[in-house]
Design a protein that fits this description.
By secondary structure, this protein is mainly alpha-helical. The chain has a domain at 12-52. It contains 2 helices and no strands. The longest helix has 30 residues, at 29-58. The mean pLDDT is 89.
Amino acid sequence: MTKKKNNLILIIPAFLLMGTAVGIQTKNLFKQMIIGLIVGIIVYFFLRYRNNKIDKTKS
């Protein structure tokens, strides 16, 4: 079985782009971009922690 590629870091720019899209629609571009970036970073660390916890229980 091949090792799965870890693309978890790509979640941060995804949230940044979602925040940009919302910012364009609401005319608050930079505010929504910052919120998207912060949420992306929080979700990244949460998922990384969860994946490490799951990997430790499998071993």
